[in-house]
Amino acid sequence: MKKSIMALSTALMLGGVASAQKVVFEEYNLDNGMHVILHNDPSAPVVVTSVMYHVGSKDENPERTGFAHFFEHLLFEGTENIKRGEWMKIVSSNGGTNNANTSDDRTYYYEVFPSNNLELALWMESERLMHPVINQIGVDTQNEVVKEEKRTSFDNRPYGNILTVVKENMFKNHPYRWTTIGSMKDLDAATLEEFQAFNKKFYIPNNAVLVVAGDFEKNQAKEWIQKYFGPIKKGTAVTKQTFVEEPITQTIKATYQDTNIQIPMLVASYRTPSMKTRDARVLDFISSYLSDGKSSKLYKKIVDEKKMALQIGAVGFSQEDYGMYILYGLPMGTNTAADVLKEIDEEIVKIQTELISEKDFQKLQNKFDNNFVNANSNVEGIAENLATYYMLYGDINLINTEIELLHSITREEIRDVAKKYLNPNQRLLLDYIPSTEQAKN
């Protein structure tokens, strides 16, 4: 009887979440291969116009890393019809905001305007695609911008190179082995012609998805989309390479010295499957259970109760081909990295051998319900999710149905997936320590 009541309660909750979050959209292709997704939401007088390109750092030449991220900056330099330095001025003077971001798998540009400026946004994004100006002055300018970003966010930031070291040890064949920001040496060595060739190869309509979300009139939007994007010529289809990593069967050990830190950090990283797989979603549950926030098992045990570490946390990287689950901790007092690792491993063994409690399981489901609602709580989030589900997952309707998939995960799956991926012989152990040079100073 108790199980029946719980099942009914879960079903009612799921139904409420799903119906409340229903995202209605229309999709179609232009003749040049550009995919278009329209989502109408008149609840606020704003409209988001975004374009996601299926190009990220994994598509780079190993000797020219950083190109995808570089283009995130470079394509704001101007176009044949938007003078250099005018892009941001046009956006702000028309009441809008814009931004862009890059990952290992894709690059995303967007504008948020008052609804009456949709045509302007569409024209600007079509200009970025059709008439970019890629010249030496723009390359030189953005090279300095990216160098400063690397210094600030990586080189001079405490623990700033953890991801760099983890990736280069976790991946041997796949281009995930370098970071999105890439190498300044590679960017310095690149010629203008190489930047132009990269643009010609990847910034084409048939390697992109255009999303319009918010308050707009659909027929008018379609006319403008055809007017501005329709004339752009289809490019040569991008052929994606497949890179296969051999399974990790023996613990990888590495050490990195950081001049910006005084406290050593323990890092344990596990390679995980593509974010499109069911196992990846189960691992998201495991990550949340073990290490998401101050109520997680690891934080409560190691930081609150035993006071063995100043901090315990995790970073999950869900990506198109492979992912990573990176645990980290800052030992406190006389406790060593090995002491903290022993406590972490004990909790992992528990989850591998015992079913988590019904109470903890319900808490996880509630948390993911909340995440699902928040992810689609505004048109900016909906626009990016529509683009992502189309481009990287191949199923736009996951924006509505992923919650059902998450609700189908069982406690038994959590145990079995932990057994499958979170074993000592399948991970990297990184000692991230203060530099000996710094210690002398």
UniProtKB/TrEMBL annotation:
InterPro entries documented for this protein: Metalloenz_LuxS/M16, Pept_M16_N, Peptidase_M16, Peptidase_M16_C
A single MF term (Gene Ontology): metal ion binding
Keyword Transmembrane helix among record annotations: no
Record keywords, A-Z: Hydrolase, Metalloprotease, Protease, Signal, Zinc
Domain Peptidase M16 C-terminal, residue spans: 190-367
Signal sequence interval, chain numbering: 1-20
Source organism, top-level taxon: Bacteria
Gene3D superfamilies from the UniProt entry: Metalloenzyme, LuxS/M16 peptidase-like
KW Cytoplasm (keyword) present: no
Residue ranges occupied by any Peptidase M16 N-terminal domain in the UniProt entry: 36-179
BP GO annotations: proteolysis
Family designation: Belongs to the peptidase M16 family.
Protein name per Swiss-Prot or TrEMBL: Insulinase family protein
